[in-house]
Amino acid sequence: MRRFPEYGVQSVMKFAVVTDNVNAWLLATLIMFLGDTAMARSLKLADPSELAGQWQVIVETGQSVGTAVTCWVDLNQDQTLSGQLDCLAPLLGQAPVGWFPEPDGIALTDDNGSRSAFFSQQRNGFYTLTFPAGLKVSLQRASK
User: Fold this and answer.
1) What contacts 45, CB < 8 A, 6 or more positions away?
2) How many secondary structure helices (H) and strands (E) does the chain include?
3) CB neighbours (10 Å) of residue 77?
4) Where are the alpha helices (DSSP H) in the chain?
5) Euclidean distance between CA atoms 103 and 48, whole angstroms
6) Could you give the number of structural domains in the chain?
7) Are 61 and 128 in the same domain?
8) Residue 78 shares a structural domain with residue 120
9) pLDDT 10s digits, 46-91
């Protein structure tokens, strides 16, 4: 152990504490910076043109294995919806009329422009919505 007679033991201990605090702050700042960069890269907001097209809606009824109701909807370039929207109306209270991308999914909107449903991205081209009662609805891009 080195001795610091010119500084005294208390001065050396204070220096060590200050150095440790500075290192902790620098490390915390670095982690926050790198975390924000990684998060921004992983949650890229998709352009509506990337998501526009025909999508299959799969409503798992839960009555028996393999039983599901399916319909087709179109996410239009102008962020309106068309297609068989009546299959979503009973689930959402009314048929959705619009949509918009979110960093981690796709939101459907009602006629007031309010978000009525949110489909969370599971993988590229596949999104899910799970209701509190356990009912699961999937949104899957149609094969080209």
Assistant:
1) 101, 102, 103
2) 3, 8
3) 11
4) 9-42, 48-51, 89-92
5) 12
6) 2
7) yes
8) yes
9) 899 999 999 999 998 776 666 788 999 999 999 999 999 999 999 8
